[in-house]
Amino acid sequence: MNLTITDKYRNQKPIIPFIRAPIMDYQNRAGSKFGGGGVASYSATNADRRERLRKLALENIDLDKDPYFFKNHVGSFECRLCLTVHQNDGSYLAHTQGRKHQTNLARRAAREQKEGKGQDGSLLPASMGVQVKRNTVKIGRPGYKITKTRDPFTRQHGLLFQLQYQEITPGVVPRVRFMSAFEQKVDNPPDKNFQYLLVAAEPYQTCGFKLQARELDRSEGKFWTWFDEDNKEFWIQIMFKTEREERYSGVPGLAPTRR
């Protein structure tokens, strides 16, 4: 039986060529140079950046003279200006070149310039707005006399204080301050029905007088203080408002009391 070539290969299975799957080329990727090992990873880039900033900071910063550099008890490094913690000196140096540290430095410099710091050392503390507390030896309380007063026209009751300051420091004028019951720390618990009148003058101790918690009349001629430098006497007069004035004080549309 004669067979043609077509009949000879008709019953055979077709031959499928084997194609090998391509392997990703990590060396010759886009953006890398031949033999360079590929594009650097994110962590490698950060490490290189920190090392570059560290070298830059070492040229400008001496850690021994840096007032904000501090090494704590666990071996970490702290920035006292920004309140940050760093594991090594390189991390701290990189932090000093960052935006946060530079911004805080600028803010501190502006604040010190406003307060007058960092200028000529001949400036006195008073000129910089700083009040220096003086340690003065107290010599006791002054003698005093209290007189009850009454205005015959307005029927207001008041008190007249007379204090003796024979050993007062030259140039010092006694000062007066009113204090509520919740500010003082002598009477505990505080009683809201009372208030306190304080008088201070160096080198005497501060005197405190316990008064009724009534509203004071601070109009002209009602409340005044006067220091007699010749006799070293300090006078204080206070007048309390009447019950009617306290009751209707601040009521809208009510005419003020005639003086």
UniProtKB/TrEMBL annotation:
GO process terms (BP): spliceosomal complex assembly
Organism annotation: Paracoccidioides brasiliensis (strain Pb18)
Keyword rRNA-binding part of the UniProt annotation: no
SMART domains documented for this protein: CactinC_cactus (SM01050), ZnF_U1 (SM00451)
Compartments, record wording: Nucleus
GO CC list: catalytic step 2 spliceosome; U2 snRNP; U2-type prespliceosome
Family: Belongs to the SF3A2 family.
Gene Ontology MF, one: zinc ion binding
Residue ranges constituting the Matrin-type domain according to the UniProt record: 77-107
Pfam families assigned: SF3A2, zf-met
PANTHER family per UniProt: SPLICING FACTOR 3A SUBUNIT 2
Record Gene3D superfamilies: 2.60.40.2690
Keywords: Metal-binding, mRNA processing, mRNA splicing, Nucleus, Spliceosome, Zinc, Zinc-finger
UniProt-recorded name of the protein: Matrin-type domain-containing protein
